[in-house]
Amino acid sequence: MYTLNPSNPSFFNSEKLYSEFIRQATVCHGCRMCVNYCDSFPVLFKKIDSKEQDLNKLTLDDLFDVASKCFHCKLCYVNCPYVPPHEFNMDFPSLMEWAWLYYKSKTGLRIKDYMFEMLDATNLARPLVKHLMQKGKEVLGLHKDAPTLPVSEKGLKEKVKPKKIENPKAKVALFTTCLVDNFFTDIGEDLIEVYNSLGIEVIIPNFLCCGAPMLDAGDVNRLKKNAEHNMKLIEELVNKGYDIVVPIPTCALMIKEYHRVLDKKVPKVYDSIEYLQKLKNEGKIELNAKFDKTIYYHPPCHLKYLQVGLPGPRLLRTLGAKVEISNKGCSGIDGGWGLRNYDTARRVGSKMMESFKQSKADVFMTECPLAGLQIEKASNKRPLHPIQLLKEAMKNG
Questions:
Q1: What share of the chain is helix, strand, coil (3-state, %, to 5)?
Q2: In DSSP terms, which residues pair with 174 in a beta bridge?
Q3: What average pLDDT does the segment 21-42 reach?
Q4: How far apart are CA 155 and CA 123, in angstroms?
Q5: Cysteine-rich domain location, by residue (predicted)?
Q6: Inter-residue contact 252 to 308 (CB < 8 Å)
Q7: Are 53 and 29 in contact (CB under 8 A)?
Q8: pTM of structure
Q9: Is 109 exposed, middle or buried (0-12, 13-18, 19+ CB in 10 A)?
Q10: Lowest CB count within 10 Å: 47, 135, 159, 181, which one?
Q11: Among 69-73, 139-143, 262-266, 269-273, which is the least confidently predicted range?
Q12: How many other C-beta atoms can be found within 10 angstroms of the C-beta atom of residue 237?
């Protein structure tokens, strides 16, 4: 709906930005269904009410204040009754992204913003980053009470070499993401093992960070730079017959958003289980697997936004698992925002965290390892990615 491309003059059109703020705020004011999702909406409604509900008295500074509270979970879009094709054409989270990036492009970035963006460079100074994660989170722009990212001793590309598959049933280019490459490498290792065992060729191209930390920090220029690099690679790989698979929903969402960052169409990218379900439906693979445990599952907000259903629970249920879905709201972490703003993240994620603390399920599951940090903090039990449970199920098959 809105361009996030700083090379597009429309991005810096403050009159258009303000007009769209008033238009969408008017719809939100008449609905107020999203008041409990994040602090953006209570702040917005308080401002409207303080101005005697005269929305024309709202200012750009009001918009920037509202946008600063948004952590890009996208739940307001997922649940809004007025998104396209409705005539109101609502897209409040995209408006927040535009406002935030516009505001930061005018006011500038802080040192902590730049440090947070550098998490994708962990492989260049792994021992230092690990030390800072444990002893000096604030230097990296992280809240001191936030869950600690587990820095891997080696990156995924150092730890695993995908097998050469003769006559592959499918060819996959894995967008490893900073999280899988630097912190949760076991997810990538298990994904490659599962895919290779099913006759799927996997390569690991030199993608850059998806751009989620740049969006959180408000760095529109580096967001575009990373998007340009990744988009060029994606297009080349798709033309060579590869499908793009992304194991982390936040990163898949960011790639989907490249159409607004670059003002061009983006090829389809797949969730890791969604892709296996696709191949299974096409008769290209068979899953001889069994999983008869109980699972308590957190559906990531960003997976909901991708509109691919819940591939993990769907597949595990066909293998015999009993899956209960938590549906207790957002974890509050949202691609790293909550690691910087943990006071808010702890409050937003409290219902979800408590539900996992009380659960007696055999296994916890989520595609989002950052939400998993919240779950582990509450329950002392680490949740697994669906691909990891599928690996176990295939051993039992």
A1: 55, 5, 35
A2: 245
A3: 93
A4: 7
A5: 172-256, 296-375
A6: no
A7: yes
A8: 0.93
A9: middle
A10: 135
A11: 139-143
A12: 20
Which pLDDT band holds residue 335 (cuts at 50, 70, 90)? low
Both tokens assigned to 281: 């439906």
Q: What DSSP line would sit under 107-144, residue for residue?
A: H---HHHHHHHGGGGGGGSHHHHHHHHHH-GGGGT--T
Read off the tokens for 216. Answer: 């959180």
Is the distance from CB of 61 to CB of 14 less than 8 angstroms? no
Distance, C-alpha 138 to centroid of its chain: 22
CA distance 350 to 387: 26
Helix (H) or strand (E) holding 275: helix 272-281
Q: Rounded CA gap, 198 and 186, in Å? A: 18
For 86, the 3-state DSSP assignment is coil
User: Could you tell me the CA-to-CA distances from 176 to 196, 203, 243, 286, 367 in Å, in that order?
Assistant: 16, 10, 13, 25, 13
What integer pLDDT is reported at residue 202 of this predicted model? 97
Alpha-carbon distances of 85 from 74, 80, 81, 90, 196, rounded to whole Å: 17, 12, 10, 9, 41
Q: How far apart are CA 308 and CA 235, in angstroms?
A: 22
Q: Please state, in angstroms and as integers, the Cα–Cα distance from residue 214 to each residue in 112, 120, 195, 210, 310, following that order.
A: 12, 11, 31, 9, 27
